[in-house]
């Protein structure tokens, strides 16, 4: 999807249509004030001005535009009201944004308007908008507190549950025969969905889809006690609105939005891992896929990844995830010290479910879906190691970054990047308007725009901006996108030979 700007006219027509429908349905005029987030996930979040056409009363709201899958039959208003009714009044006031109107939906595209009562909305941004590592660590740590200490402070327990049953609670229809994940394994990766093990960079991992479907694949796995309660169900980086104080470190507000997949009496910890998976996919755009896989495999061998083994490109991401897991560990020790094994086991199972959920999403790229599958397999291997489950003896190749051919049945060549862009040590989050403007120029007809030059004083981030823009266009040019180190520019090479006057 093209990156949106603050102008609704840049949005896909289906988004523009649902905005017009909202205006007609509620007799209001909606004007965009600021783009809060928009991009890879398809969701777009705006700060908007809403004017009542009769009373002329004006209110500032948060508008979320998103697409819902065909299988999602949830009514956002009904679910939102259920959350308000079942949560404590204190939690609802502190952490649940209010719905302004009923949700507007047209052919799977939705528009939801929120308010945060009595507060300025200017500094409220989605989690995905923050780039300072200390802030993101604070947000992940706070998420643990909000979900467990506040929302599920009186969590119940279900005793002696088989691990496959826990996964089935979370995944449901995503495990159906012939479903998206099965087809991804078979058609895209050339792997038998019923094989016991997957080979990833020379290491054996249990097949998460098989284990989520069939209890017998676990052998004599012992049963575990499972914490249950409320889950958001779609806690990605765009569904948390937060505000920091002027010192940029103290958190002043934390609100959850979009409860269309809210459920009660469910195994907990799914939200923790779904958010982590969402954050990892957001980070993937900044690093090579191979480095991402290297990091994902470390999840299989330690509660918190060893910082000395983490690829340098993933150091910041690892620190954030480590802080989240540290917060969870403290919660277990303070509240349920005798259940450490089972609760950590539930934590790993939640990672399996989150990874398979992202693999199930057909709107994701093949690399993102593969990352979800590897994430699921890594978490399942961690569970297997904790509870001493036997290693699979029948395996098929899922991914090998060094694979040079695909002659053997069931093996596929790892996707080779069509660029030489240098890896950046930190995430690029923000400056989206500038990235959008540059991308818009680069994607115009070559007869109109042959060269784009970024100008400005030294140290203002011209090269970093150019590299980010180039990284987001690697799939748009047949011959790839290349960085010429001896010039402070990025060369985008289309399939046709460049004109003589074009810069390298």
Overview of this protein structure:
The structure is a single chain. The chain has 504 residues and is of the alpha+beta class. The chain folds into 3 domains: 8-122, 2-Layer Sandwich (Phosphorylase Kinase, domain 1), CATH 3.30.200.20; 135-153 and 160-227 and 269-399, no CATH class; 432-492, no CATH class. The chain has helices spanning 13-26, 76-86, 89-95, 133-151, 163-171, 180-188, 208-213, 270-284, 289-298, 315-335, 340-360, 366-386, 432-442, 462-471; strands at residues 28-38, 44-52, 58-67, 98-99, 104-106, 109-115, 125-126, 156-161, 197-200, 203-206, 224-231, 240-244, 251-256, 263-267, 395-399, 481-484, 489-492. The strands form 5 sheets. Strands 1, 2, 3, 4, 5 and 6 form a 6-stranded antiparallel beta sheet that branches. It has a 3-stranded antiparallel beta sheet with strand order 7-12-13, with helices on one face. A hairpin with a 2-residue loop joins strand 5 (104-106) and strand 6 (109-115). The longest helix is centred in the middle third of the chain and has 21 residues, at 315-335. The protein is globular. The model is unreliable at 404-417 and 486-504 (pLDDT under 50).
